[in-house]
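dumping this here so i dont lose it
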């Protein structure tokens, strides 16, 4: 029985992870559940899965959660520091990091410092502080298991290939809802349109990141840290059906790809059960019904956020941290209809230009950079 702490249990990844646990109650225990502010769903999950502990980050909702669970032997905590503490608890075997954005960094660090296996769905953690995270993995002999469908695909393709050289990664992208929009149409994109992803059901923040292709830029950075690659070794390939989740090209020219239906439960379950594969009640890929697959290069002119991510990774240091901070500010402002779609890239680019650059940052430097970049981005709004 593997005891799992799900950081962000009420989000898209968290709820799907609980469905995996629901399918395998003999193998996985939802030991700890944490949520940001969704007290109602956290209470519902706690009553079903009976975890050892729950944490609500929003301290104003603590009494609501505590009072709703008084009849059950469940510990109830509140605040961001409590999330870090439960991530490092001795009774936890694995941490699924599914919190959104920069807020997931400190709990992930706590988990690795405690030697926990970390199933990582929070890509911003590696985008912001990939050097710190990978160093902690080595120092504490932790397992770092990717949950993103693309990185899980790469991870699966590399099974048994540890002694062979990677020439490049083919990082697939759906292209989002604006893949075929003209330059003129891009000037009039609304948040409601951007939130309608053609293939995946995801949270609001990541759905907007997918529409701008910043999400793919983040995944490029994440792939570099996870698999020891340079940015030029990661090629983004638009594959609008979202059937090929990514591929690896080796130095002899052979390409190995992982295919499947667009269902996040598969990479979640693979991370939780690795190195074993377990049965999963989910739709199967039918190649005959699918018929054809399409491929095209990513249009960095139409999606400048992707180009900004490559530039930030090439610069290194705190540049990716500033990129992420500015994106979180601009993404939220766009969802709240304070700025236009095209303003997102402009704000990010100008923030990176103005933010102080540290070439060899410490963890504290990343937190300071994040705060300063957010200040600059909000000023640019």
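and the seq i came up w/
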């Amino acid at each position: 029985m593997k005891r799992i702490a799900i950081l962000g249990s009420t989000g898209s990844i968290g709820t799907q992870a609980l469905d995996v646990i629901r399918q395998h109650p003999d193998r996985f225990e939802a030991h700890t559940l944490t949520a940001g502010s969704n007290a109602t769903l956290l209470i519902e999950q706690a009553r079903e899965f009976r975890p050892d502990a729950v944490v609500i980050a929003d301290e104003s909702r603590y009494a609501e959660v505590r009072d709703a669970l008084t009849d059950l032997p469940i510990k109830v905590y509140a605040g961001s520091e409590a999330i870090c503490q439960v991530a490092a608890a001795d009774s936890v075997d694995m941490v699924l990091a599914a919190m959104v954005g920069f807020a997931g960094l400190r709990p992930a660090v706590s988990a690795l410092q405690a030697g926990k296996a970390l199933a990582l769905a929070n890509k911003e953690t590696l985008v912001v502080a990939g050097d710190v995270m990978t160093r902690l993995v080595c120092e504490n002999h932790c397992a770092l298991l990717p949950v993103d469908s693309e990185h899980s695909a790469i991870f699966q393709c590399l099974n048994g290939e540890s002694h062979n050289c990677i020439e490049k990664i083919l990082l697939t992208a759906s292209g989002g809802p604006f893949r075929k929009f003209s330059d003129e149409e891009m000037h009039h994109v609304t948040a409601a349109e951007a939130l309608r992803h053609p293939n995946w059901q995801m949270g609001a923040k990541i759905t907007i990141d997918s529409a701008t292709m910043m999400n793919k830029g983040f995944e490029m950075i994440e792939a570099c840290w996870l698999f020891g690659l340079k940015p030029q070794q990661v090629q983004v390939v638009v594959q609008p059906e979202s059937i090929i989740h990514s591929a690896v090209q080796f130095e002899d020219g052979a390409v190995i790809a992982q295919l499947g239906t667009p269902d996040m439960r598969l990479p979640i379950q693979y991370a939780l059960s690795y190195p074993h594969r377990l049965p999963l009640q989910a739709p199967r890929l039918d190649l005959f019904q699918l018929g054809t697959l399409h491929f095209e290069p990513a249009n960095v002119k139409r999606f400048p956020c992707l180009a900004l991510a490559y530039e930030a990774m090439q610069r290194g240091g705190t540049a990716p941290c500033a990129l992420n901070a500015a994106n979180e500010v601009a993404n939220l402002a766009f969802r709240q209809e304070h700025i236009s779609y095209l303003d997102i890239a402009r704000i990010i680019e100008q923030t990176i230009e103005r933010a102080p650059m540290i070439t060899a940052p410490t963890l504290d430097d990343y937190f300071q950079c994040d705060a300063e970049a957010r200040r600059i981005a909000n000023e640019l709004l």
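DSSP finds 17 helices and twelve strands in the chain.
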